[in-house]
Predict the structure.
Amino acid sequence: MLGDVLLIREHHVAAAEVIARRVLADIQKLRHEHPGHKYIVAISGESGSGKSELSHALAQDLKKAGEQPKILHTDNYYRVAPSERLALRIADNFKHVGVGEYDWDLLKSNIGDFRSGRMSLMPCIDIVSGQLDRLITDFSKVDVLVVDGLYALGIKDADLCVYIDLTWRETRKNQALRGKESDDLYRLRVLEKEHEDVLAFRYRADLIIDHDYLVHEAPDPDDAAAEGDYAGF
């Protein structure tokens, strides 16, 4: 998103290095079987968990390794602009806060453009103005798409899914420092509802980042939750 504030720290950089090694190893194997394979990394976690910072650090590592990355922020895919979202949520008594607020069809279309190496018209929210802009991206020149967002693990054909295992209560300080949204009772209701929806995708993770920001292989889920119909990829 335009105007977003990033607070990249040593733990983001260290975690990104681990993930980059995994991505590069995967790419080597996949391209041996499928030359030209375009790779997708999905990074999910609650507000303030460091998704954007981790994505940026990962993209930098991949670029240094000779891959051309692009970051796709799913927060750009809200159906309603930031300036109108709170009023709509209040009117609806916050019942539909969560994955249903996203334009999954548009996200699916843009990811399809990436896989096919096409030109793509993508949404981009300007945080300062709250305005929705459209940017043209040439995906023929992009090798790795790093998708970051609350519900990024809803992308079913991602090659690697990363989940940051920190709740919004543990990251309140980071949220305040980034200053993206006011910290009031309305915001707390949104965060609690988002917590439920983000957690529902945790079982899809291949890698888990723990409370110390260390990267671990995710254990096989005992019983996978039923997948929702929002992403449908």
